[in-house]
Amino acid sequence: MSSITDSISSLLSSILSIFRDVLNTILSFFQSIFAVLQNLLSSVFNLSTNLLSSTFDLTKGLFNFLLSNIVVIGVLAAAFVGYSVYQQQQGRTVSGEKKRN
After folding, report:
1. Whole-structure pTM value
2. Cβ atoms of 94 and 88 closer than 8 Å
3. DSSP alpha helices (H): ranges in the chain?
């Protein structure tokens, strides 16, 4: 009789172990999905942060370039304006179009 009770006890223990392992598997699956979603959101946040940082760095570099070369840019702009005024005084037009006959 004790072998029957031991066998039934072992069977019930095995069945409960199966349910526990299936439940652990399901919980591990959902935990993995949540971890993937958390990593995805973290990656998107880091991407947007890096994009903003890179945009500001690019803008800063462009302004630094313009401020560093403001004299050269001003001289070139003044030369163009002076050339345009000189050409207009000579009776010629300054344009990018070709003359048509």
Report:
1. 0.53
2. yes
3. 2-68, 70-89
- Tokens at residue 71, please? 């004299």
Question: What whole-number distance in Å separates Cα of residue 94 and Cα of residue 67?
Answer: 29
Query: 91 — alpha (psi -120 to 50), left (phi > 0) or beta?
Result: left
Structure tokens, 49? 């942060």
Given a contact cutoff of 8 angstroms between Cβ atoms, the answer to whether 54 and 65 are in contact is no
The first and second tokens of residue 100, run together, are: 């048509």
Residue pair 87/93 in contact (Cβ under 8 Å)? The answer is yes
1 has pLDDT over 80: no
